[in-house]
What does this fold into?
Amino acid sequence: MDETVRTEPGTGQPASRAAAVGNDGVAQGDGGTAGRPLGVGIDVGGTGVKAAVVDLATGSLVSARVREKTPSPSTPEAVAETIARIIERIEASGHRTAGMPTGAGLPGVVKDGWLRTAANIDHAWMETRAEDVLERYLARPVLIINDADAAGLAELRYGAGVGQRGVVLMLTIGTGIGSALFVDGDLVPNTELGHLEFHGHDAETLVSGTARERRKLGWKAWAKEFDAYLDRLYRYFSPDLVILGGGVSKETRRYLHYLTPRGPLQVARLLNSAGIVGAALAAAEARGYRPPVSAGVREAVPAG
It folds into this structure.
């Protein structure tokens, strides 16, 4: 893609037609979102790439959540092309995104714009600066963040963790197990607790959602093993609140009654939109934006 072309994806119009930018450096919406602080959130997973425009004041989605399959192989260039195509689809639906803070959650340890590990994604990501690749394809600044950290940030600011002090642990249970750890509202980045040793293996290879299916475990048998893993995390961190998110969070009626947590445990409220919302918020907070104290989504964010 030609780096010198600075048009709004999907419109062919100059980037100067971007949404207005407020004093806090965050793009303001037009039309039905006039005056609202908006951002673009991108969630890159092992099976799917999703993105949407996010209302940063409430954590709700103001565009449809657009999803495409993660390309195979999932190299930086292939994924960046997929993201650019998704942004074009969002803009074709009437949401201009140029000028909005843009964040991308990626499955791995994030350091200074690099992905230092690559879980469930091509290892070529560790050979190039991820932010540079995404910025080249999207023709805008892009902030990257660990995908579970993004989901945790969304839940802490808008969802199940709103107003919670002390130690909060968010687990995203799906293809793998991601984790986000907060102390008095501050993120401890890149904890990657899904890779803790558990019964001689990485925990996520035994008790992730995908592992349950691969091992052909019923919900009760899986919950018994997951409960033992959860107990270990309680021993290590003594969390004041644990939040369960990711794909498995939609199935809590099948297993939650089998768990014996040592403390408060809640189900994520933003469900599969948390990674999108948190990535957009992380990019906005890097510009100095802070959501209002009253922020909080009390119902699941619609998927669009």
